[in-house]
Design goal:
There is one protein chain. By secondary structure, the chain is mainly alpha-helical. It has a domain at 16-75. Helix content is 43%, strand content 0%. It has three helices and no strands. The chain has helices at residues 17-30, 34-53, 59-73. Helix 1 (17-30) packs across helix 2.
């Protein structure tokens, strides 16, 4: 693995003891120095925050989207396109031939009364 580039000193005043201990544990677990660990954690956190920011709408864009959705929800039903995605589910057909309309001879019926 290539070494991390040199960085300026990072001085953190009033660092919470729990947070400092967590950074130290990461450094020990990875076998890294504290400066290398701090740089890694800053970069990882920065990537996570930047990824969270991608795809967010500005307030005016979010309001426009909400208005468009409300307008679409207000479209009355018609026999055509408004049924898309709203149709009642159709029960699956049984597998095999449909013998319900055939009259079988009584002598071959399994449920016949032998009397």
């Amino acid at each position: 693995m290539a070494p991390f580039p040199a960085v300026t000193d990072i001085i953190l005043h009033n660092l919470d003891s729990v947070l400092a201990d967590r950074v130290r544990r990461v450094a020990e677990a990875r076998g890294w120095s504290l400066p290398r660990t701090a740089l890694y954690l800053i970069e990882s956190g920065l990537f996570a925050v930047e990824a969270d920011m991608v795809g967010r709408f500005e307030d005016h864009d979010a309001a426009a989207l909400q208005e468009a959705i409300a307008a679409l929800e207000g479209i009355p039903s018609d026999p055509g396109f408004s049924k898309i995605g709203r149709a009642e589910p159709v029960a699956p057909k049984p597998i095999g031939p449909d013998l319900s309309g055939l009259d079988l001879l009584d002598e071959f019926r399994l449920d016949r009364d032998p009397a």
